[in-house]
Amino acid sequence: MKSDLKLKLALPTDAISMDIETSFLIGLDWGINVYELKRLFNKRLPSFNQSDVEYIKRSVKKNNIKICSLSPGFFKDKIDSDLTKNEISNFDKLLDFADEFETNKIIVFGFQYEKVDNFPSNNILPKILDIYEKLLKKCIKRKITLLVENDRGHYANNKNILVKIFQELSDGNFKLNWDPCNCIGEKDSELPFPDFYNSIKDKIGHLHIKDAIRFEEKFKNIMIGEGEVNWKDQITALKKDNYSGYYVIEPHFGHRIHSTNKHLENLKKIIDKVE
Q: Global pTM?
């Protein structure tokens, strides 16, 4: 018996093509009209100029597209790096872009961790909290949700650190962009489901869907449903826990159009099995 579960599906703008117009047209043909804004050709937020912004807005309007979130790729470097400092100084541009594209979610990452024997170092959490708190105050004023994504090699992919971050910053405008696949292959990481999930489920405000396996001590993305993420049980739990946000399909490998379409097909098969 097929499930009657209806998920709110979305795609990153660069999943299908680096040209947004092409991505929109193909996605619409698959029944998807919601997108996470990341790149336009060789540019990533917030490096868009006014001409880029107008092009995106025209395409959004013409194709009746909704932008559900912005993903600029901020905070993937070390916390004290020049790149991180530059991203902090450019955060106001993201807030302006959120207004331009009529979205209320901005995704950032959790800072590349130092590979030291005493990971995590005792002085890192206050630094992380200080940055997030300052940016969160700006987001609250603009009624925007700041989403932190757990990603491999970052402090925010360590369950204990992530739990502490959300204990300290408990505002409703501060949420998790949950990516279970990013836990696969992470040193000292627990299983994404149910172990990690049960510790942070109340903080999830957005979701990325992909899959992977550990391959010769490395990480390899593969088709959803064929890897180590238990997506059937994960989606079942999200349904039970009343998650109502978007499920953003993020293939990360293979031919863009074929891989994304195959992910979508596999996801629909998984949804049919959800109780």
A: 0.95
